[in-house]
Fold these 2 entries.
Entry 1:
Amino acid sequence: MEKALVRISFFHSVKNIDFQLPKGRVYNYNIGEVTNMGIRDEYNFEYLVNESERLILEELERQLGAPENSAVCHCEDCVLDMAALALNSVRPLYRVSLMGTLYASALEGSPEAEEAKAAVSRSVKKIAANPSHGD
Ligand SMILES: [Zn+2]
């Protein structure tokens, strides 16, 4: 019985695997599909951050923790609806972040931060008045 030694390279330019059989013969198979890597496999898109999303979620946390919103529903449906509504009402602010959140403090007190505050406030009121949970 012949046992195959299989060597597979996952670098994007390599499209072949070699089968090394005990007798020393090498069989080479082209396996194009396996090495057909998508852009998400080749690049780390976690470095791509939307500063608006960060601002909105921080602001949502702050406002939901405030005493005046203690009666507002904090269930997952409602909180995600608030986030989605607020996020859709502000301009996205994407940037590439290889260095973490150095940029974060630069937005404090900026027009973007003020807009995030207003967007969250509107969204909390709107969803609280018309929650979608449980229906
Ligand atoms: Zn709810």
Entry 2:
Amino acid sequence: MITLHEPAHLTSPAAAVRVSYLTGEQADCLLRGTETDWLGPASDDFDDFVAKRCGVSTRWGVPSTVLWYISGEHYLGTLVIRHELTPQLTDVGGNVGYHVVAPWRRQGHATRMLAAGLVECRRLGLDRVLLTCDPENVASRRVIAANGGNPDGNIAGEDRFWVILAADQNAGGPAKRRPS
Ligand SMILES: CC(C)(COP(=O)(O)OP(=O)(O)OC[C@H]1O[C@@H](n2cnc3c(N)ncnc32)[C@H](O)[C@@H]1OP(=O)(O)O)[C@@H](O)C(=O)NCCC(=O)NCCS
């Protein structure tokens, strides 16, 4: 296992992790069998790719923030915050989406990344966050549960969870789940 010499943190996309971003995302796409076409243009002009992902932009029809989970030169994953919900996002997608690239999975990164993402959500003014998840996605369900996700049924085949954000939400780690 590669040793990370710095604790990973959520940050705006950064050109400094070009190589690990591209190799990590490529490995992830190949594992999942998803499109890799976008990696060519991204590698040709990574500065532009990064610039287009920094700050608040409209995605899914709402203001959204893309954050990368980074430790030193290593890119580990992405977390997206959708500042508002549309009817579609209320059914599928919710406020926060995330993935950890395949080489870094099963090391607790997603659990810690979501905890850090919830701090950012609070900073953005959200007082509760909707997460949706395929019922078969055991790993993501555990990540959500470890971060205080309270189940709220299933819509359109996705399980829904709300995380209530404390006024003093901090980066101390995953939250305790509220008793139901
Ligand atoms: C879901 C995902 C983000 C988890 O990332 P990760 O960094 O491996 O997660 P963690 O290491 O924090 O693991 C969280 C828990 O899930 C468990 N877990 C991780 N991968 C697992 C798997 N494939 N099968 C079963 N359990 C798994 C871990 O053991 C851990 O359990 P614990 O809390 O009881 O110790 C990652 O698998 C991923 O990116 N998947 C594709 C995209 C995705 O599904 N995103 C979420 C959409 S809702």
